[in-house]
Amino acid sequence: MRRLLGLILALATFALPALAQDRATLVSDNLQITGDTRLIADGNVEVFFKGRRLKASRIVFDQSTDRLEITGPIVLTEETGNTLILASQAELAADLSEGILSSARLVLNQQLQMAANRMVRVSGRYTALQTVAASSCKVCEGDPTPLWEIRARRVVHDEQERQIYFDRAQFRLAGVPILYIPRLRMPDPTLKRATGFLMPQVRTTSDLGTGIKVPYFIVLGKSADLTLTPYLTARQSQTLGLRYRQAFATGQIDATGSVTRDKLFPGETRGYLRVTGEFTLPERFLLTFDGQTVTDPAYMLDYGLGNADRLDSRVEIRRTRRNEHISARIISFQTLREDEVDSAIPSLVADLTFHRRFSLGPLGGEGGLRLQTHNHYRTSTSPIDGPDADTIPDGRDMGRISARIDWRRSFLLPVGIEASVLGEATADAYSITNDATYAGSKNRTHAAAGVELRWPWVKAGATGATHVIEPVVQLVYAPKSSDTVPNEDSALVEFDEGNLFSLDRFPGSDAVERGTRANLGVTWTRFDPNGWSLGVTLGRVIREAGLGQFSPGSGLAGASSDWLAAVNFTLADGLALSGRLVLDDDLSVTKGEARVTVNGPKTAVATSVIWAVADPLESRPVPTQEITFDARRKITPNWTANFSGRYDFVADRGTVAGLGLEFLNECIRFDVSLSRRFTSSTSVKPTTDFGLSLDLVGFGSGVTGGPARTCRQ
Questions:
Q1: What is the pLDDT of residues 263-300, one digit of tens each?
Q2: Which residue stretches of 199-331 are H helix?
Q3: Percent of the chain scoring above 90 in pLDDT
Q4: Could you tell me which of 312, 314, 316 has the C-alpha nearest to residue 342?
Q5: How many whole angstroms separate alpha carbon 130 and alpha carbon 106?
Q6: pLDDT band at residue 11 under the 50/70/90 scheme
Q7: CA–CA distance from 471 to each of 395, 501, 547, 688 (Å)?
Q8: How far apart are CA 452 and CA 418, in angstroms?
């Protein structure tokens, strides 16, 4: 019969000082007392003391020696639950902090296991093991060799510092000795940050040859750390990378960068730097900053830092609340494009925006007010367009103050028709310098008003599906003429279902949509009870006159715009398809795009197709016809393959392609990748990039293990 002996019985019988101070509890099937100093607990014994939990088949306590003789199987769990000790026999102190265990195994954070012939507990802090095999891999009876292991003469685990010290360590892969290290120190799996080397990475490129990265992580305190990453290649490239992180009470900063000397640019020092941060300010404001710079256009591609063709650095303070948005920002640009120079693009941009939504009381409806200032500065002082031929004077500087107010109110008419009246008015004041055409001060006012009618029809089918058809007619009045100002923020106009019923389709403030027009469209949506939905939109814009305000490639030029057709299809199992076509009256495609995504348990695919006619006014001198794809397939529970690429149909060649293969189980992650960039320029050459990385789960890598191996019967 199972008995529960609490603290009172233990104290009354033996007066154990170590147990009495912390309320030890003992549970066993049988209990007997022999002589005056021995207590024997037998059968399913459990002891709870100082947060530790000990399970065994038999425990003998000798009061004269204050020791426990324990017969296994033994399971000792520490207070945190991250350390587990298994053994066949043990002799421990009464408080379980010291002693010797035989045929023992130490399990850390349910990942790393260390098996030893003999284990010694010292002062409740150190665990010393003799003749040790350490691994986080699952071992099967028929195949006792783990995928990887570390064999050592002696291992010491410091629970307080959470460090593991190996003496005469030997790293084995599939049972084959690979590396011998006389002394090795590694963090245990419960420690998130510790000074020391991280797992190296191998990278091979056609320009740099084979190289190795060996990161060294340095803890600078509880809230800061530094990672130094030397990168040496076979073709005499030496790079030192760094990453500095620091957390504060109200935010954090992160700085990454690298300095390089190589044969690609003989005698020059190349490098890259990026600093990001985020801080909360009083009154719920948020400060963010992101600054980056690079020494030359090819550096980021040469060293795998990204493929951006412009770098923007910015500092912004913003606050967004219900019905209100406030932001102030400063932005600087650095171009990496062949056909641009830094002096001819805005090197400094400053914006201030206040946007507020509000109700209009007796007038009804909802109104909005937006106040904005904008300034940009170029380092060039030339008042004419230079060699870049972008139709913008190389030195044009501009400042603008804008105010916009808008209003909308809806009414419900008979037979379910929803009618809305809407309007907006803007006023802009410009100051322009270094421009031979527009220099001086310019003022502009513009207004637009409209009436909108929506008539939704809803039908429920016999199968439970719901159909919604909604024709929409929007009549808009706006002046035909407007004061002309330089257009720098509205050169690229998209025509889609999001702005089909907008009073102004220009994305910025420099251009305004003029002329009386009718926005016409109809949508049909089907909601199926099985969880999938289908939506289709068709529409176009009819104008009183063309006015020449849109480029041909936008689909909005002329008295009648092109036709807009859009479809969205979503399945409950993760398949989604969206497409959009802008077609002229002859059904020729002006612009088109389609995207297909699949998010399944084994397969993930994202594919995009883009088609656009040539339009120099949109900085597109040749047509754009491209397909991009990114696929990921779980071949087995442990193996995953991925494939990505981009193909240019106009040039009839691929631009980038990539292959990858990853293996992940309970104890190891192996990742190999191969990529190829086919495009070239005066500063960038086609290159092939090969990468290889290996992480051991359970040794502070931060990698979460995958499915464990299956043992064959």
A1: 999 999 999 999 999 999 999 999 999 999 999 999 99
A2: 299-302
A3: 60
A4: 312
A5: 12
A6: very low
A7: 48, 12, 27, 53
A8: 8
